[in-house]
Design brief:
Layout (H helix, E strand, L loop, with lengths): L15 E6 L2 H21 L7 H23 L3 E6 L3 E6 L6 E5 L3 E10 L1 H4 L3 E5 L3 E5 L3 E8 L4 E5 L3 H12 L9
Parallel strand pairs: 7-9
Antiparallel strand pairs: 1-2, 2-3, 3-4, 5-8, 6-7, 8-9
Length: 181
């Protein structure tokens, strides 16, 4: 990476966007699809002679596990961060759910962190830990830590997190906190 001087008061675009992707999640999604396919195969070509109940439990179990793993992993293949003049919005996966919108008036500050790992948060996905706050973790690497006026933190893994922090800080200089705090 080239070394560029970054002035805090350098102009920022009206809308800053960033993304982080985890290609390993696709492997887990394939496992979910395989479980789903096994459930369908069992339902269509059942040669079980031990009764209907074990067959139904196997079919339902495979399909349920397959759908859970498939949709659970696809929801966190990537995260998109969008920063405009009024808010920061985080969207996960291809359909953008879960989604969180944080008005900048609720943000006290933003910090860069060089290493966010799923192990620190208990896995991939949308996470909450009482001692750490909330996080969207889709991969290991750099991230943004938002300090909110209510005392909570919100961490997002995103590529070029340093640029995101600069853009957030530039926006925060022009905003005052909500009167509701």
């Amino acid at each position: 990476m080239e070394d560029h001087p970054h002035a805090e008061d350098a102009p920022h675009p009206d809308v800053w966007t960033g993304r982080a992707t985890n290609r390993v999640q696709w492997l887990l999604a394939l496992f979910g699809a395989a479980c789903l396919a096994l459930g369908i195969e069992l339902a269509v070509n059942s040669a079980w002679t031990s009764g209907v109940a074990p067959l139904v439990m196997s079919v339902v179990g495979c399909i349920a596990a397959g759908l859970l793993v498939l949709f659970g992993t696809l929801a966190f293949v990537h995260v998109d961060l969008r920063l405009d003049r009024e808010s920061l919005e985080v969207r996960c996966g291809h359909i953008g759910v879960p989604r969180r919108r944080i008005p900048l008036s609720q943000v006290a500050g933003a910090d860069f962190t060089a290493l966010v790992t799923p192990r620190h948060w208990g896995g991939w996905g949308y996470r909450w830990r009482p001692e750490k706050g909330t996080a969207v973790v889709v991969r290991r690497g750099e991230g943004v830590v938002l300090r909110l006026w209510d005392g909570h933190t919100f961490t997002i893994t995103v590529d070029d997190a340093e640029a995101a922090v600069r853009a957030i800080r530039a926006r925060l200089r022009t905003i005052t906190p909500d009167a509701a705090h």
